[in-house]
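pinned: reference chain
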Amino acid sequence: MSNEHNPIAQRINLLQDLWIQQRLLKPKAQFIRWLIDEPDVPLVNGFYKLESSPYGKIDETLVVMLTDFDTITTFSYDLAKDWLTAYKKDAEKYPELQWPDFELLHASFKQIDKENTEASNVFLVELFTKFKTYEGKQTPLFIGVNPRKVTSYNELCVWICNIIEQLPQNIGLLVTDYKANNFYEAVFTNKEALFEKQTISLKNQNIQGAYTKLMTQGNPNDPEVAFRKCMIKMGEAATKGHQEKLINWGEKGLNIAKQTTNLSFWASAHLIYVGHLFGFKDTPRINHLLDKGIKIGHKNLEDKALLGVTLQLYSYKAAYYSFINKKEDALNWFLKQATLAQENNENYITVTAYKNAILLADQNKKISEMQDIIPVAFQTGYVIEDDTLKNTEFAYIASYYVNMLHEKEEETPQIKAELEAINKRMSHLFGETWEHQAKDLRKQIKDKELVS
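pinned: its structure tokens
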């Protein structure tokens, strides 16, 4: 990772050095938090990723988990489940990984009731402890608790204090906190939490400056380097509300891209330019740019890179029509995107486009107009293999289709059998609560604007 010309790499190396220096001050700490400015999150995540690779240089072992924190009563269970699932996937990918206790732990976990908080806590501590033994290192193991979603930081702090009290001294927890929020301060002020704690405070790293420097490195006569400069200037102008400056840099960017023979580069220039224009509601210019970009895209759809840009332009067209409250046009462009994606075997985009169309229709009380589309969307997605389908948002489409089946005048044996088959497959792919989660989203979008 050491690269003297890479400003991002330099900053991540700085984090490594800072960790090593600070850890010498409190070597027995079992709870560590990075205290950072929010824009520096990518740097800390880069540090975590680097230290999980062969190129890490700190002594401690870091294992970062992204498990959602829904409730204090179920977090240990959810964390253990994600840990076991992740290890199983790694073991399948790397057969040389042999953790003797894994199968027994996996079998024991299956016997735990998710609502039994105490049993889940005990199992999680056992899981961490046995993994530490399996790892075989003398230096500490830190579990990075980095939830994608947190319903209550107060409850999460209580959970942290409770779990650390049960862990051996050579295992601790690690979190990322923000200077503006101090989400985890309650752990430090808890007088009953007798374990040692440490804050590693990071000075603002000017991450935007690092990105700018990285993006503009290289030969200034190289079209891609010159365009990246235009892109940065477009972003600055858009942020400051300077429409004329944005147009000036956008047109420069188009001219640079046009001079190359790279169609996907030229089409992308339209996509980037129009994205910055959204906030100004410059409808004639935006529509012209989108149509021109799409026209370029259709010159060679066999080019996968160009196809990808073209599909994004379709999505932007739909999103912009929704943004200016032309919902019928937005709906049509999402459906056009779905058709183009399907014709070119872009399964993930096909599902996403149909999902966006259906949700947009529901939000605007036009779901009755989708009665012919929903079965097509469902059948289109349902034939996709499991490994691909489980990474899509197909559950939402399936939920609408199932609802249509339930609304039929008579629930025939054939319909009942179809419903059972759908529920079995969806539960396998998305969990047993798949339909409940989809219905929750359907309720939420009634009063919220769809964001594609």
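why pinned: The two ends are 35 Å apart (CA to CA). The chain has three domains: 7-208, 219-324, 340-452.
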